[in-house]
Amino acid sequence: MCEPQTNILKEIGPQSEKRYIYDYTNEIIEVCMISDIGNRRTNNEDHCLFSKARDNNYQERLGILTAVADGMGGAVAGEHASKMAVSYLTDYYFQSEGNHIPDILLNAIQKINSDIFNLSENDPSYFGMGTTLSALVIHGDVGYVAQVGDSRIYLYRNDYPVKQVTEDHSIVAEQLKEGLINEEEARNHMLKNLITRALGIKEIVETDLYAFSIKTGDTLLLCSDGLSNMITDEQIQQGLSSQKLTEGLNFLVDKAIEEGAPDNITAVAIRIIGELEHKDMLHHERMIIVSPEKKFSLLQKLINFFSSK
Predict the structure, then answer these.
(1) Domains in the chain, CATH or no CATH each
(2) How many CA atoms lie within 13 A of 32 on its CB side?
(3) Second label for 32, Cα 20 to 30 Å away, from 10, 86, 240, 307?
């Protein structure tokens, strides 16, 4: 465990409210975070994070960090695991040396995994706890993602379909990838919440890395499965294309509530509103480069055309 830094803006939610909302805007980005307890849960095991250095040198080296974590383990254990994940992520990330962001993310996540695992092993009240973690760094015009579990990160670019950047670490996602089930079957599968990776479950955790270019006008979404399980990609695109980011994100959370919301719902949206400094993309042998500019099919163009009438 590391000591928190005072020169870092670190916003973590939720606190104790049923629906937590946080907004932040500067000349480059607009940010909105929402976490809702949902319709059936009595506590919120999700946590979300937005953090950035107040010092310009730190910002130049490490950019902006945001994350979503979805805890598991029952009682207070899952809630504690997800809060540990996002809080320690900021501390480990901004206390790091060097400037190779993919390595810094991997090292930070492994340390967090060890912290959660050791607490779970040594304190019976936290036995079996774990958490997903989807983390995003915006460094100039490059985005870096570190992924464990089935929370998700999406990228929406004007004139292109919304892109799911991450892959779920779940039994159902593996079956879908292997062609054993289709997308409709996956959405309604009884085992869709059974994940294959989480922080704190084993001594070593395997983390996926992604990178992609970012442009002015892009909107990114990080969310727990409490949101992604309840809404469609078309609805996500509708929300992320809203002129007002906070209204768009509330629209998505409200849609999940309307669909029953059996789980907690947490989402972070970031829109690029200013000019980004160009940065060379840093590479890593395990990193997957993602292109957000997959064109609409002719059929989808026709659907979009007539639905707009």
Answers:
(1) 8-307 (3.60.40.10)
(2) 20
(3) 307
